Amino acid sequence: MAKGEIDAARDAYQRSLDIYIKMYGGDHGCVALGYLCLARIPTLHKKKTDRVELYERVLAILDTREDATKLDRLLSEIPELPSVDRLKMLVQRVKAERDKVATAETEA
């Protein structure tokens, strides 16, 4: 992917994320997916710690341990996650991606 394409993708995802935050607030499932899209974009000039922070934001939004009602809310907000099992799988994948990015940064 060329740098211009990466920048265009990042800008598009950032615009959609900004809209989601204005519409739904910072703790909505769509916002988590917006942050995840940004975190997954290959980076040419941003530090990898920025990507790790984005993954952390996703995990914070998807964390249902402190709020029993949040699980049902998230499942209704994210139609792509039709079940608790799918949400758990996403959380595991996000953690693995975050750890991979963080490990690559410490090795660089």
Tell me what the structure shows:
The chain is mainly alpha-helical and 108 residues long. The chain has one domain. The protein has five helices and no strands. Helix 1 runs antiparallel to helix 2 and helix 3 packs antiparallel against helix 5. The longest helix has 24 residues. It is globular and about 40 Å long. The mean pLDDT is 90.
Main attributes of the structure:
108 residues, mainly alpha, single chain
- Cα separation of the termini: 21 Å
Structural class: mainly alpha
Number of helices: 5
| Major sheet details | none
The Cα radius of gyration reads 14 Å
Record field, number of beta strands: 0
Order of SSEs: HHHHH
Overall pLDDT confidence = 90
Shape: globular
**Strand fraction band?**
under 5%
Domain unit count = 1
Residue stretches low in confidence (pLDDT < 50, at least 5 long) are none
The percent range for helix content is over 70%
Describe the structure in brief.
This protein has five helices and no strands. With 108 residues, the protein is an all-alpha fold.
Structural topology:
Elements: H1 3-24, H2 29-40, H3 48-62, H4 68-77, H5 84-107
